[in-house]
Amino acid sequence: MTAKIIDGKAIAANLRASVKSETHRLTAAHGIVPGLAVVLVGDNAASKTYVTSKSRAVVEVGMRPLDYHLPAATGEAELLALVKALNADPAVSGILVQLPLPPQIHTARVLNSIDPEKDVDGFHPLNAGRLMTGLPALVPCTPVACLKLIKSVHSSLVGIDALMVGRSHIVGNPLAQVLLNENATVSVAHTHTRNLPDYCRRAELLCVAIGCAEFIRGDWIKPGATVIDVGINRVTDGSGKSRIVGDVNFAEAAEVAGAITPVPGGVGPMTIVSLLVNTLHAACAQAGLPPPAV
Ligand code: NDP
């Protein structure tokens, strides 16, 4: 193996420690305990697991978890009323509505009702627009996580040839914009892209978020490139054992790349910490304080 492994767990642990000390500083100096409201509707097992780990992480860094678990039959009006109350509550610095929502609820209507200043998932169109126009914004957690991992390898992205494979509103689009704001030269590939392997081979920085297990092959990767694999895919081998793999064929890619994130242990552990970073930024901005040093 030639590639340096970008250790998301270790980088996340360092960042969590910084968030914790900045949170304690905010509390000691200004009496502010950032509060994160996490709203779960229904009993989706994966969502429950995410929500539990988010609340645990919030407590660990000295923030206040505010958990709301609503029944699966909750109507849209009821959820909108809860968001309205959270928007108005000064103890709430950040609001996260766990997706997916049940079918009777219009997801965009709910996400768009969150106060943009408390939109720690960064999904509100105002934050997307602010990111696009280079204004301070709450940026979706996974792109924030990816940038921190990339910065552990590249102190500057100025002029670097970057390819973003995937263009979802949660990962691909905002990450492409984040890289552009760092003055990388950014291309975006998707299902209509012709000759994807050729595009990949030109990229010094290859970011992949497509949800296709081990789709990107080793011989698509430019020697020495940095590879950020956002994908989380569960696959089952011949013996019926299941495991999690990324969107990149790690074993092949690690022989060619200069640096690569593993799956699991790369982007995943960083994403929750990025939520804490966003909550801390939101709390400071709401109090009229300068941004924290994380
Ligand atoms: P979406 O399904 O919303 O978007 C997938 C994107 O990839 C689309 O833009 C699609 O193109 C593109 N795409 C799909 N297949 C191909 C292909 N064969 N070639 C080129 N482009 C393709 O997924 P998400 O962005 O939400 O998630 C992507 C992956 O990242 C998933 O595995 C998800 O589990 C994971 N993830 C991981 C997180 C983490 O914390 N590590 C957080 C969020 C997601 P088109 O627009 O043309 O349809």
* Radius of gyration over all CA atoms, rounded: 19 Å
List segments where confidence is low: pLDDT < 50 over at least 5 consecutive residues: none
Secondary structure tally, helices: 10
How is the main sheet built? 6 strands, parallel
- Residue-averaged pLDDT, rounded? 97
Order of helices and strands: EHEHEHEHHHEHEHEEEEHEH
What structural class do helix, strand and pairing data support? alpha/beta
The spatial strand order of the largest sheet comes to: 1-11-8-7-5-6
Proportion in helices: 40-55%
Shape, principal axes of CA atoms = globular
- For the termini, the CA-CA separation is 33 Å
Bound molecules: NADPH dihydro-nicotinamide-adenine-dinucleotide phosphate
The overall strand count is 11
The percentage of residues in β strands lies in 15-25%
How would you explain this protein's 3D organization?
The protein is of the alpha/beta class and 294 residues long. It has helices spanning 8-30, 45-60, 76-88, 107-113, 125-132, 141-151, 172-181, 196-202, 250-253, 267-286; strands at residues 4-5, 35-41, 64-70, 94-97, 161-165, 185-189, 205-208, 226-229, 233-236, 242-245, 259-260. The strands form three sheets. It has a six-stranded parallel sheet with strand order 1-11-8-7-5-6, sandwiched between helices. A three-stranded parallel sheet has the order 3-2-4, with helices on both faces. Helix 6 crosses helix 10 (267-286). The protein binds NADPH dihydro-nicotinamide-adenine-dinucleotide phosphate. NADPH dihydro-nicotinamide-adenine-dinucleotide phosphate is lined by residues 142, 165-168, 170-172, 189-193, 196, 209-212, 215, 230-233, 267-268, 271.
